[in-house]
């Protein structure tokens, strides 16, 4: 979160604290001074993803191959200068930050509603000033970096603390990010990702020392300064009275500054006159309206102390609670130490997805997706994939093994969920003859029978355990795509034959297209429903990641990535073509070799759905773009009597380039 307004304050009021630096020169100085240690920059990846995502299109679900190419260019620029990068990602949302997380999610809901209203009105993507990152971008960025040879770290506590600690302990040349908390931690220099010029490796370095000089403070004052301005521990709402008192007595009040700037100057002036001692901190705690929790300031200051650091505000004999990450503060749900340890190691190395969070404290969250709250035909992705998650929870928590199975706490954002408390979700056993294999078998056992069990358990999470033979005949990314698409068509009864055609054409036409080709694709207009479906599909890929992690990796994680199976603009094109009633030739870009694979994949989905009593109807929408803001009821005009469903002859063997070489499924 950082401290509201501090970054802008430094730029406006303390320009001497903003130094333009050449990272190549800094790296060279480091090599001279430390010849045995290569220059390293630790990257707060969560603060960087919005700056890394530079493809022009962002509403359609993500331009994943373009994004992957951008990340590769980013890494190469630093490698060329001999600078190593270490990437950190938030692995948890700590309880102290939950209220702030909820507040941001509810604000994002309003931003997303405005985006959809713009798309419906103008039939195009809004400008960059309304930009939000594509759904699940941070999740897939971790795996993209691994694919590009990096070693991203997924944290066990809030990332900013671990980033600052790593930078200090490993003598890094700096931290790259966009979070004013890095001005408060006493660690290595803080570089701005927002100001980074990649081709020259020049950016702005924010100097704590110069900030202190401008404010009349010392470095030891900064943690208290941050707390008295409001941060993740001390809410701003408790500080209004204190700010008023500071403003009244401040000699620095300037009418040309906004109120927040004057508050920052006034608080700094007040602190500069307070002796640095524990008794001063206790006096402040008594003075502030902290309610029943009189230790807020203490905990706030302590949260900025890195391992081995002391503060005059806090006695030496008080333990720093930041040293004890998530699994040590709560009783883990998983009692098998070997499984728990493996889950933890995979979590840190960014090899699994959400598994450690479930096994450690039974709580997970999912941020906003680009979903249209006015479209009542498509449920929120959180609800669409909940049945699959319930099966995954059962696999992980072994709900069928007797005894009470714990409920899982979900903080998932969807329309109608006020996020006032977590939803308590019951694990549900997947339907597998003979029962679900235990976790030790799925994770540790070896041999072809176990490989089959892993694959079958994975499919059972999506109600497709009867389709194993057909899916194993496909290339792994296509099999995963079909698994997700079939599940989606089963769960959402309003999805049509035209939607199915668009998705199948997407996976076939995407193969072989380069990032540059996809970047060059131009859309005449943007359809809001296709935007919504794109976000739902990409969130589905994260559900595949979760199931794959839980079931012992029947697929390689690389085969479940969006750059293998999805492109936002290409899906928009296929969706609009399909609903316009274009020919198969146009839909498949004149490539006759795709006709048979198209019919086969479509037949597979239709047959699997029919087995579950779901017939996919034709409902072409033409160019009838949704422009209203009111919630819609299903419109019967989409029903077409001349072609109500599609049940073509089914081909058992998936021929063409989709055929997979006979080989066992590779583990991760």
Automatic annotation (TrEMBL):
GO-annotated biological processes: fat cell differentiation; peroxisome proliferator activated receptor signaling pathway
A GO cellular component annotation in the UniProt record: nucleus
Family matches, as Gene3D superfamilies: 5'-nuclease
InterPro entries in the record: Coact_PPARg (IPR026784), PIN-like_dom_sf (IPR029060)
User: Where does the record say this protein resides?
Assistant: Nucleus
Q: Is Aminoacyl-tRNA synthetase set as a keyword in this record?
A: no
UniProt keyword annotations, A-Z: Activator, Differentiation, Nucleus, Transcription, Transcription regulation
Its annotated function is as follows: Functions as a transactivator of PPARG and ESR1. Functions in adipogenesis through PPARG activation.
What the record says about family reads: Belongs to the constitutive coactivator of PPAR-gamma family.
Please give the PANTHER family that the UniProt record associates with this protein. CONSTITUTIVE COACTIVATOR OF PEROXISOME PROLIFERATOR-ACTIVATED RECEPTOR GAMMA
State whether it acts alone or in a complex, and with which partners, per the record. Interacts with ESR1 and RXRA. Interacts with PPARG; in a ligand-independent manner.
The name of this protein is Constitutive coactivator of peroxisome proliferator-activated receptor gamma
- Annotated gene: Fam120b
């Amino acid at each position: 979160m950082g401290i509201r307004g501090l970054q802008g304050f430094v730029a406006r009021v303390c320009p001497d604290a903003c130094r333009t630096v050449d990272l190549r020169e800094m790296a060279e100085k480091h090599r001279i001074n430390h010849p045995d240690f290569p220059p390293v920059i630790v990257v707060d990846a969560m603060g960087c993803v919005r700056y890394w995502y530079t493809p022009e299109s962002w509403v359609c679900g993500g331009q994943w191959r373009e994004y992957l190419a951008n990340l590769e260019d980013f890494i190469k620029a630093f490698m060329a200068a001999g600078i190593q990068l270490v990437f950190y990602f938030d692995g948890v949302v700590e309880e102290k930050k939950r209220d702030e997380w909820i507040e941001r999610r509810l604000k994002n809901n309003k931003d997303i509603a405005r985006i959809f209203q713009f798309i419906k009105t103008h039939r195009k993507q809004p400008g960059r000033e309304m930009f939000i990152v594509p759904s699940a971008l941070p999740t897939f960025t971790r795996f993209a970096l691994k694919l590009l040879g990096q070693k991203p770290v997924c944290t066990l506590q809030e990332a900013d603390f671990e980033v600052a600690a790593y930078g200090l302990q490993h003598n890094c040349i700096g931290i790259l990010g966009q979070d004013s908390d890095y001005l408060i931690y006493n660690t290595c220099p803080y570089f701005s990702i927002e100001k980074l010029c990649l081709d020259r490796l020049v950016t702005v370095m924010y100097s704590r020392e110069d900030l202190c000089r401008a404010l009349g403070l010392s470095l030891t004052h900064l943690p208290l300064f941050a707390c008295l301005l409001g941060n993740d521990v001390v809410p701003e709402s408790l500080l209004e009275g204190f700010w008023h008192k500071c403003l009244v007595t401040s000699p620095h009040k300037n009418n040309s500054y906004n109120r927040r700037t004057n508050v920052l100057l006034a608080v700094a002036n007040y602190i500069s006159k307070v002796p640095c001692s524990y008794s001063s901190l206790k006096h402040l705690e008594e003075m502030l309206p902290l309610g029943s929790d009189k230790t807020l300031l203490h905990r706030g200051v302590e949260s900025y102390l890195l391992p081995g650091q002391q503060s005059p505000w806090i006695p030496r004999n008080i333990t720093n609670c930041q040293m004890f990450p998530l699994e040590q503060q709560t009783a883990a749900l998983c009692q098998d130490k070997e499984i728990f340890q493996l889950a933890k190691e995979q979590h840190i190395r960014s090899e699994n997805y959400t598994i450690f969070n479930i096994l450690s404290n039974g709580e997970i969250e999912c941020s906003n997706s680009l979903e249209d709250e006015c479209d009542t035909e498509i449920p929120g992705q959180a609800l669409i994939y909940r049945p699959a998650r319930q099966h995954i929870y059962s696999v992980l928590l072994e709900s069928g093994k007797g005894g009470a199975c714990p409920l899982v706490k979900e903080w998932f954002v969807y329309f109608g969920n006020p996020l006032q408390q977590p939803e308590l979700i019951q694990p549900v056993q997947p339907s597998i003859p003979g029962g679900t294999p235990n976790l030790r078998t799925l994770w540790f056992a070896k041999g072809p029978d176990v490989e089959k069990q892993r694959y079958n358990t994975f499919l059972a999470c999506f109600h497709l355990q009867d389709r194993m033979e057909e899916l194993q005949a496909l290339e792994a990314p296509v099999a995963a795509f079909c698994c997700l698409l079939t599940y989606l068509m089963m769960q959402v009864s309003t999805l049509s034959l035209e939607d199915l055609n668009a998705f199948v054409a997407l996976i076939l036409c995407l193969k072989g297209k380069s990032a540059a080709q996809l970047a060059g694709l131009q859309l005449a207009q943007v359809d809001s429903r296709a935007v919504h479906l794109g976000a739902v599909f990409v969130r589905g890929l994260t559900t595949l990641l979760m199931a794959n992690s839980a079931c012992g990796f029947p697929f390689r994680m690389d085969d479940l990535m969006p750059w293998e199976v999805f492109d936002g603009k290409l899906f928009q094109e296929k969706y609009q073509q399909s609903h316009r009633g274009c020919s198969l030739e146009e839909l498949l870009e004149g490539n006759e070799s795709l006709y048979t694979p198209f019919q086969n994949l479509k037949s597979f989905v239709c047959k699997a759905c029919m087995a579950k009593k779901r017939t996919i109807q034709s409902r072409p929408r033409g160019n009838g773009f949704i422009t209203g803001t009111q919630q819609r009821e299903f419109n019967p005009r989409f029903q077409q009597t001349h072609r109500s469903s599609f049940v073509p002859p089914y081909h058992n063997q998936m021929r063409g380039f989709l055929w997979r070489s006979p080989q066992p499924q590779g583990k991760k």
